[in-house]
Every structure is written in C-alpha cells, then in structure tokens.
Amino acid sequence: MANDRKKMFAKHMEIKFTKEHGSNKMEGGEITDMVGKYYRLGVEQNPRKVEMKKAGQEIAKKRGLAGYNPMMHCGGIPLGQRALTPSFISGTDMMVEIDDLHYVNNAAMQQMWDDIRRTVVVGMDMAHETLEKRLGIEVTPETINHYLETLNHALPGGAVVQEHMVETHPALVDDCYVKVFTGDDELADEIDKQFLIDINKQFPADQAETIKAAIGKTSWQAAHIPTIVSRVTDGAQTSRWMAMQVGMSFISAYSMCAGEAAVADLSYAAKHAGVLSMGEMLPARRARGPNEPGGISFGHFADIIQTSRVTPEDPAKVALEVVGGGCMLYDQIWLGSYMSGGVGFTQYATAAYTNNILDDNLYYDVDYINDKYDGAAKTGKDNKVKATLEVVKDIATESTIYGLENYEKYPTTLEDHFGGSQRATSLSAAAGCATAIATGNGNAGLSAWYLSMYLHKEAHGRLGFFGYDLQDQCGATNVLSYQSDEGLALELRGPNYPNYAMNVGHQGGYSGITSAAHAGRGDAFAVNPLIKVCFADELLPFDFTAPRKEFGRGALREFEPAGERSLIIPAK
Amino acid sequence: MVYKPQFYPGATSVAENRRKHMSGKVEKLRDISDDDLTLMLGHRAPGSDYPSTHPPLAEMGEPDCSIRQTVEATPGAKAGDRVRYVQFVDSMYNAPATPYFRSYAAAINFRGVDPGTLSGRQVVEARERDMEQLAKFQLETEMTCPALASLRGATVHGHSLRLPEDGLMFDMLDRTRKEGNIVIMHKDQVGRPIDKKVNLGKPMSEAEAAKRTTIYRVDNVAFRNDKEVIEWVHRVFDQRTIYGFKPE
Questions:
Q1: Domain A118-277, CATH 3.30.70.470 — does that match?
Q2: ipTM for the whole complex
Q3: Which of A405, A458, A474, A499 to probe by mutation at the B interface, max B CB count within 10 Å?
Q4: What local confidence, expressed as pLDDT, does residue A4 receive?
Q5: Kindly report the CA angle at A314 between A311 and A315, in degrees rounded to 5?
Q6: pLDDT exceeds cutoff 80 at A501
Q7: What distance in Å separates the CA atoms of residue A205 and residue A278, rounded to the nearest whole number?
C-alpha cells in the first residue's frame, strides 16, 4: 500500500502556510519545507484579532474599566510572534478564523448544544392507555392530531385551560415544537404531516425498516422546549417544562377535569416513566441534572448526529462528522467550560475537525483495510473482519505510523497540530475509527485507540499533556475488563466513565469510534432508535446531518440561531 | 549473575541513544557555571542563599522510623529548600532529548525529583539545590543542544514548529539568540531579561543532532524500521489488554 497518495490536507496546508492571510506574510515556500520564517507581526496581521483589539479598546473606554488587551500577554509580547493562519473546516472548503471556532464566537456551536439540551423524547402510549382504560376516553388519530396542535401552542408557553394567564411571546420561542413518530405505518399515515417525523422519508429503506421494527407500534413525541428557556435554566428543566405543557394539553385536548387523579398519571408518564433524556444525571461530584453533556453517552451522541442516514455508503464520513460534533460538545463545552474554563480546550478540539488531517488519515486507512481485508471497510455486515487483537494491532499500527510520518514529511501539518494532544487525538481517532469500521466492533476500535497512543508515545518520545499518561496508559486494561463497569461496551460509556472525566481530546474520538462501528455495518442506529429518529428533522435550527459544515457557517457568521432576545431589548 | 538493566529495546541509533539517556551515561559537551545556571533558572539571585520552607531536618527533631533509616534525605530536603522547577523544551527536528526520555533520565538517575511529561515540554520539580544538580547535568551533556532545546518556564510552544533559518527552535519570547557561532540566553525561563548573556555553546550540526537524537523520524531513523521496538510496544499492549480481561 503506497502511502505517497495525494494528501487530503495538501490544499489546505498550501493556503494556510504558503498564501498570505490578512497581512501575515505567509507567501511562498512549500508545505514540505522544514525551515520557516517568523516575522513576529503580532495581532495586527490578523483581521479578527484586529477587530477584537478595537472592540476591547472601545469597551474599556465606554465602561471605564480595562478589558481585552492583547498586549497583556507575557511581558507585552502579543500573540502572533508566528503567523496567525486561518483554518479550513474538514470536509468543506470553508476557511475560517480559529477564534471563530470558540463556541462563544460561534452561534452554530451554541445552537447544536441548545438543540440537544432542550430535547426529550416522550412516549405517548402510557398516556393513551390512561385515557382509554382508566377514563374510557377514545383516542383516535383525530384526537391525537388535535392534542398535537394544542401542544404546539402550549409547549412554547401558550396558555390552555386557564383564562387569565401570562404567556411567552411566540416570536421569542419560535424554535419550540413537538413532532411525533411511530414504527406503525398505518398510524403514521393518519397523523397530520406537519406533526410527523416520517421515518420512511428520512431514512434509507433498509434503515427505515430496522428502525420501524425496533420502535414497533409504539408512538413517541420528539419535544424541543424553547432555546431561551433552556439557556436560562438547564438541561434538567427540559423534561419538566415539557411535562407541564403535555399535562395541560391533555387536559385541554381531551376535555379532562383539571384536578382529576388521572392527570397525575399523565404527568408521571411524561416526567418519569415514559421520558427519554439525551443524557443521564451525573453523580454529586460532577453534579448536573439530566440532559447535560457529561451524561450523554457516546452511543446517544452517535445517534444524535444524522450523517449515517445521509451518506451510509461512506462510514468514514459518518465517523468524522461524529468526531467533529463530539469534540465540540464534549471538549469545548463540557470539559472546556462546565468542568474547566477559558479558551484552551478549543485549540485541542478543532484539530480533529479542521484542515483534513484526520480525514486524510482515516481515508488512507479505509483504502488499506479494503486492500488487505477484502473490502472490510465498505458498508456491510457480511464483509467485516473478525475483531481480534492481531487485527487491532495491524490496523492501528499501520494507521498510526502513516499519520506520524505525515507529521514528519509535512512540517506544516506538524505546525498546524502544534500540540502533542492534538496529534494524539487525530492519530488515535483515525486508528480507532478505522478498526471499528473494519470489524463493526466499537470496543475493537477503542482497543486500537489505546495502541495508537502507545505507538505515538514511543515514536516521538512524547504524547499529550499529563492526563494522557493516566488515561491512555491504563486504558487498554479496561477495554475488555472482566469487571462489567470497566469493560462496558463503548456505546454505553460516556464522559463520566472512570478516567474519561478529566482529559480533553478523547470523548469526541470515542463517540466517533462508536459511530464508526455501526456505520461500518450500515446499522440504522448505534444504540437508540428513538434518539436517531428524534433528530431526523429539518425543522431543528442546527443541521445534525452536517455538524462540521454548520460550525463553518457559524464561524462565517452565516448561521441563524434560535432564542434571540432582540425583540425585547433596545434596538441598536 | 548480576542484574544489568537493559533500559530499552531496539537496534537503531535512536534506541541506543534512549538507552544512554536512561542510564545516565551521556557525554559531557559543555560547562555551565553555577551562577549562569542560577541566572537562567530565575528562581533566586546568583550567590544568594537558598530560601527555605522549613529548618534543616537535623534541627527538626524528627521521629525515628524505618523509612527515615532506609532512605537518606536529599541535600535539598536536608537543608529545607523550597521546591522549584526546571523545564525544558525539545524540538522535534532531532533535538537530542524528548520529554519522556528526559523524565526517564531524571527518575532513574536522580533522587527526590518529580518529573512531568508533556508533548512540548518536560518539567522537573525538586528541592531547589537538587533540581539545580539535575538541570546542570542535562544542560551540560549531550542530552541538550542549545539550538534545538531551551529552558522555558512559560509560553513554551516551539517544539513542533519549523526551524527558523538560524536553526534556533522558535521561541515566542526570544529567550535565546545566536551570536556568531554560539547560542546565548539573555532572558530567564519565564522571559524576564537577565543581567548578562549566558554562553550556552555551539549548536550541534544537523549531522550530529541526527546522530544523537532520541526521536524517530522518517527522514532519519524511521519508527517503522525499528521492528524490535514495535514488537515490544505490541507486547505491552497485549499484556495490558489481556490482563484486564482475565487477570492471573
């Protein structure tokens, strides 16, 4: 297998490092040059930094209090002693400023997390049984449609039943709604199309059949409370807000008595018995309620991202989109803000979804696997190679050494991934995703992740920061541990898994490996069909089929978020 | 038969250099005076006393115990020195040392040290005079090339960046410079100007750096060609994985 193939990162490296951006003087040279020029131009070389500097000065003057001042860096020597270069969003031609990939500067990133946090899936069947068996009320497609119309008024904050009640302004909560889905085609046909997530339309035929079989004749509501509510409160609020409005809507739609005991059953079903949160509650030491990122399992996240139903023939792309989304959510928002703070985590995370370096490594692996293992990296169930330690060692070693040699042959890629943690994430994600695609086994992929870490450490005599010594040197031992909690299937692990809770640059990769195993098999979902269908919905502000592109739109200030307050604040 | 540590597998020059770093049997290439070292480290003024955090152990009336009988305190601990650090950055373009091998060298050959290993830098914390002993050793020997490695307490990026035309690893804070055919350091570890230019000696030539380095590179000694190292990595991986599955 020749590894001198056309590099997917070549064009991006050429633009970054041999073409001028702003006034950074990056003009000329080759991406293979080992010698570079350092002009020490400071922040003035970069358009976004200039904009930020000016804004900082204006704010300081206006408020009479010092603020952002890039000259405060280390003895008055500002950032930009080397060239400040833009980045490309992997899988696209979108060139962005790296500042704009911090979630504070990126409305699409904020909205991705908003859309997950404000979502719960709620069963309808318990409520229908309560109505029919206990109260003798007939439930028909017509009553369901009427209920859904009522709930789409009430869920955003519209009043029903009461006669003198404050309400939320519809223009502030226009992103809030509920739709339903079912595995029962006959029932689906009876549902008003505006309320239906049509599984047959959203998924390829084979995936739709699998999903419908898994869901069966049950019916579910995909509920998204207002972004603005979720931002003011937290993820744990989502089921509560939803349950209150569901209860009120049942009362109104089915002409129930507001105080009758059956209402409590409906409420219990919506709040507890029939509700599926995106994330589990976390223990006291990381205290967060349900629907916060630390509780979102890698399997759930793999199902939230929707690329698998759009490009099922390209499992590498599916995995890469999950890696990108996962690095943003788990690294930038969860570890980077909830668990830590500041700006550093963004620099780690973006390495996995910019400039095609990871993409190049993974697609090389796909070719290697298809050549050596008779097409095992193609989507399918019968073509997978058996998950053995020998296969893990073979694929992970080839993948990792290929990636390492790229950093050695192309100094610009090494300079782009200038931290070992960035390189470790990219190399291990490639090895892990490739092995998972080839075997259809997430834990085999995880095993490859850890071997990649060992090989990287030995080759370069360095790895990531301190945490990599902990997490990545003991990780292999718990891939297949006889202790059930340690040896858990990767799909069911999450950010709160032992040893996973402290280290940037990992969780996006783990979720990518999870999705790779299932994308490689052509599965319709990784762990939960309800979550997969819930996000198969174009009405959501964030397009979950293409998270990396959405991050690019956010960075280019083209993304239109929800939950804005301009209606109720002074116009500027 | 007396046990002889093997330290590291591999049949290449990189593997051999790794064994040398770990064993501490490295060649001395230059002299750094105590005062110059103190200036560069930036923890105290040259010639001043070591600040202490407790009285000398001999004056503290410590209880007798088997650990104290077995382990003799280091000079810095005996004197009550505070804990200070030395931090190195090594270029990936064939600097002699790499972070892990600086850590191994410190932990194997020095007592009372606390090495921290990252990708771009490697820090050792220890009682101040103990730390200085280690820092001097690493600076004066073939473990360090003054062009491809430097002391950096903060703002450390440079290890992975292309080399500038003068061959000195990029340093945002410009702590070292080439003057004639020698490298001088004119700022301390955290970038504060110091009173004199410390002579760090001549940089290694490209050929010498390639010969002395402990990093595998495809344009020098390729990792994929050191079969024994890869075999050994695979063995560690096998053992750790299988032990977790069925510890026996």
A1: yes
A2: 0.97
A3: A458
A4: 61
A5: 105
A6: no
A7: 26
